[in-house]
Amino acid sequence: MVSSEYCDIKAFDFEALVFGALRSEVCSLPALAAAVHALFAVILLVRIAVYWKNEDVTSRYSSRILSTLHRVLTWLSGILTLVCLAVLIHPVWLWRKKHYNLFPVDEAVVILLQAFGWFVTFVGLNREETHESALYERYFKVWHVIALVVSLPGAVLSTRNGVSVSVDLLIVFVPCLMFLVLVTALFTENMYKKNYNWGKTPSESSLKQPLLDDIDNEPLPDLSGYSKANFFSRLTFSWVKGLLALGNKRPIVKEDLPPMRAVDEAAYNYNEFSVHWESEKRKTSAGSLPSLWAAVIKTYWKGFLLPMAIGILWSVTFFVGPVLVSSILNYLQNEKEEWTRGHGILLVVIMFVGKFAELSKQHLTFQSTMLGLRMWSGVGSALYYKSLRLSNKARQEWSVGGITNIVSTDLQKFLQVNLAMVQFILIPFQLIVGGVILYWVVGIAMLAGFSAMLLVVALNFFLVDKMRTYRYGGLKSKDSRMKTTVECLSNMKVIKLQSWDNLFLKKIEQLRAVELGWLASYMYTWACSIFVIWTVPVLVAVVTFFTMYWLGESLDSRKVFTALTTFSVIKEPVQQLPDNVSNILQMMVSGARMRVFLCVDEVDDNAVERLEECDSEYSVDIEAASFTWDSEADALAVKDLTLRIPRGACFAVCGGVGSGKSSLLYSILGELQRLTGSAKLCGKVAYVAQTAWIQTKSIRDNILFGRPMEAKRYTEAIRAAGLETDLQEMPYGDRTEIGERGINMSGGQKQRIQLARAVYADADVYLLDDPFSAVDAHTASHLFQECVRGALRNKTVVLVTHQVEFLQATDCIIVMKDGSIVQSGSYEGLVREGREFGAFVSALEESLLSVNQAKDDAVASTDRISPEAEKTMTKAASLKTSDRGAGNGDSKDGEKDSFIQQEERRVGGVKASLVWTYATTTYKGAFFIIIVFLNLAAYTFQVTGDSWLALGGSGRSQLTYVGIYALFTFGGVVGVLLRSLITAYSGILTAQTLYETMLRNIMRAPMLFFDTTPLGRIISRSSSDQTSTEVDLPNAVSLSIFSIIGLTGSVLVSSYVTPQLLFLVLPLAVILLKVRMYFITSTREIVRVMAMCEAPVFLHMGETVAGTTTIRAFQEQQWFAATNAERFEAYQRGQFHLQAAITWFSFWSQFTCAVMVSGVAFLLVLLPTDALSPGMAGLALSYAFGVNAVLGSLMYNLAIAENKLISVERIKQYSNLPTEAPLVIEDHRPSAEWPNEGRIQLENLQFRYRASGPLVLKGVSCLIEAREKVGVVGRTGSGKSTLVQALFRLVEPAGGRLLIDGLDITTIGLSDLRSRISVIPQEPAIFEGTIRGNLDPFERHTDVEIWETLEKCLLADLVRSKSEKLSASVSQGGDNWSVGERQLLCLGRALLTRARILVLDEATASVDITTDGIIQRTVREHFGDCTVISIAHRIPSVIDSERVLVLDAGYLKENASPEELLSNSNSLFFKLVHEYTDRTGIQHD
Description:
By secondary structure, the chain is of the alpha/beta class. The protein has four domains: 9-217, no CATH class; 262-602 and 926-1213, ABC transporter transmembrane region fold (Up-down Bundle); 610-818, P-loop containing nucleotide triphosphate hydrolases (Rossmann fold); 1324-1394, Rossmann fold (3-Layer(aba) Sandwich). The strands form five sheets. A six-stranded mixed sheet has the order 6-7-8-4-9-10, sandwiched between helices. The longest helix has 51 residues, at 501-551.
């Protein structure tokens, strides 16, 4: 640099500088160049400020060459800014050399002007890339032309006069070099402008050049991913930059995530794991469980070696810092006189290399997570395969909620356990190395410190054991909560109809309270464990220093700060010990639960011998076989079964409720355990379940069921199942998406989709379990004739049915009773034989007698009907439904119905309002402020204690010196304890508040929400998202606050000792913040994609468990497993690339820290030896070394906090849902006796399911008198069940009114309405618990009343046969009771309610005709003084009604007595009756 003795910038004005330059004065040229640069910088800065808000931010078109050149110039300007700032050390050094006299202002001003000019140049160039106007180009050209003129003579003179070359070249040569670069750029620019329209906006060039040129000009980021990355790219994690760059351009979608390696895929890992798991199972003796961990270790031990090797490397480099601190302090104290400045610089270089090698920690984290993902996919796939093989007993023990909880909670522990294991294993090695260094520094005193540490660590293991107990209890209680939650959400329609909202809300909240107790115990124990571990380095330091004092050793700065640095290094693994041990223990608990699940009973593959092809003449051949649901139970499901069904035969199975019809089909399928005899099934099987099982996919996908599309066969399946008209009326045809569990389809439509699936399968054997129960007579006739006896005429068919009228057309009839075949033969033979089958036929004849009697009465009364009335009825019957199929005209092939709402996905950053909401959820943020204060206090105590040590012990008592340090540091530890306890308390309280708000909002949401929202989305928020908010997030937020304070403090302490560091720290901080924004923009999108991929995993798991029987019957386990693998891998890719992005950022932020630490050491080496005391130098180095750990902790916890805040965001989405009307409106409560009559009036009632959807009820008006018995009939999908939803206000009317006893039902609360009406729903729903709990959930009735009710609904004998009587168990979904028995329980529930209005919504669809007659008789006897609305497909169920309402396409077409409607041959009701009597084969004479 030009010496100040030659030049004094204060002696020159601008004119003097110019003329001095013309005279080739050495001191004028650099000053003039700096002045001109600063002048242009000011002009550019003003221009940027003026035009900043007036230009659109867009991407400019440029060639790859110019784009690269532009980046080089941009970063060159930034580097020169940093270099100029670093050069300021020179005038400061001169100032110190002159004992702080005559500060060289001239040199400092020149350098600052240069730095300012280069900084504005950097800003301008950086801005140029993102703005349309080439604002900087003109100034760039002019400035560098002048710079060349001014700098070239100065460069020559600088060399000639022997001035310090390094800095002068910076000032005078760089502009010259940049001018040459500019000339090249201008030439290239003109060439590209001429040939490629470079520099024009998209609007100017897009119409003039091909699309391929656009692609070439602005290439997509490299998304090849990890699998194709080279060594250097993997070393620096640069392979993930393509994805990060894409995330900064637009929101990332699932398809953007690059594929993973073959060894990471779910199928590969399952195959590897299953081999060792099966080996463990074979080696295990009876009565014990195989070891899950043995199988996992044997599968993945090779993969564990790489993280372990990296961990050892990291541990070695981890302790480079303390050794170098000691060496540098030795150098500064001149203990070795032969050491020169070159030795000091060599130490700095070694330090930088060591800190760079310490970045291996990021590879340790990444490789551990990769291995964890492989374990996750392998074991997770095994869990899924297990769910496909669960026996019926196991499915009763393990609910959908319990299995989902294992996948969402327990399986996730694999992602963390490998890193925890490596760090846990390495702790002894790290402590030994640390002990050796301490012994080298402080001698024998280290033994006392280590003894204290071991004592504290032993105490912590006691706390960890407690944490394990609390964690296990918490997971068990969470299982119970999730099981009830899933059951509640799955049956929300029934719950709302019964007005049980508050009952289930209270039940879930009680289970949550138990879970919360375990959680609180766990979190408070964790807080105490944190306190104990944070005490370790403080206690070790204090004990060591006191021991040194007792031994009479000196406490000099080198020993103190080398020891403190070593304690700081040891502190990280020791402080991570609770988390590591906790993760390992949680994994052990979770592993035990997964182990138990993987060992539960499976379906017996040998129960039935299934052959795809065989030469036997029988498709089903069972000889003297007995089957049971539970091998430990005494009761048999099917007894002494001998059954041979020839190929191509059609066998029908009938019997009363609970007689064993469905059990017979299960026996044929091999779903039950065979105890005796033999069973064989030949050919491919198709199965139609009694309760329709539908996937959340399109209608087409449900029918194809994983098979390729064959148009002819598909069309035939649609025709045979009678779906043609339905598909025409749907806006998107067969691409219409079905809601979860087929919620947006009627019962009949779901059954017909199942039938179409079976027909399309082109199987050999068809097992149909009561497929006609949910359809009307016309549709049932079509299905029997066109499907069973048409499309399946050459197939083997076993048809379970209550429709006796179809039995004449079958080859053989089997009659079941108490699990045995009591009769079999042809229809005529069984009629002659009588007995049980004769009772069924008699019941049919009785029902037909009532129908025919009604027809006779109608004929007799025809003369009494006026011509005007007959004309009116005929006109009503002939009305055309103009709206039918209206929506089909706009449908387009390939589109999907949007009934299922796409999951809401926020784009952009986590809003500050969300952070504020989380912080102020409880006590308006008071806890958050307290946590910040305690963190600040703890760190202040720590800094004060270390600063006290830095002052040195000379001139004061050594005891006082150490004692005061001990007071300060223990004050900090107490602050940590209070912070941890308050963090745990506030975290639990906040999570509980968020959960309660969400739960209550969900319970009050309208049915439309449950119809359009897959169950998996709600479950994921109640499970994994909830866990994130109550465990992970509070800790991450608290530690982030502490890390921010620690990082700021470390930088301030180091900068206080070496102020020059600020010139390095500030630019590095700006770069780091910019990189973080670049990183976090993409990362939050990856997290959201990952969260959206999580719900399909749970949904698929739940659907699989619910439809296991159907899946196994079709033998589609492999297809479902492949689908599961795809969903696993989608979620896995999100997890993998999230960890890769976090590691990329951690790597480069840690690298920045390494530069800063080396910068501190470099400054200390360059400073004169007498400029700083060794204590202050040691303080600076100690805190500089701590920056790496603090910054790593900060970035990790900030990433965790922001990612977990997305869980808060997702929970908040379901905390602000639209709600139903209030349950109770105090100002409009009906009287306690309401409704005392039961008079129902509909006035132009209009009803639609969605605001944008079509009307489903279209202006229905009618009056139902008090105590009147009204039947409602109509074709499938005519709107019958919709009328029930309108009556119960499951959706608010779109128009018109509905009055009960003159009271508009929309003016009262929903609870007051729904609790006063009884309903027996179309799909019987009973809940896990007991018989008593299902009949009387509010415990309002005595045992006597309950037994009387059971007598009335024909279940008393069955319940008495149970040893527990009224306390007999009901499994989830009532799976241990037949569908007919569940329906009778629902009837008993209605009998106990004793409401004035009873609604039967297809209440007898699932029972035989005899039981149907008994139910109808029970209703007539016990609901005689009630208004009864009976919706039915069976004509006998409504034929004795006082009035019949006929619905068609949402219109009320007919409203009259059965006699009146039957007297008119043109009426719709007449046609329905005629179809029913025709299909029975029994005509009325």
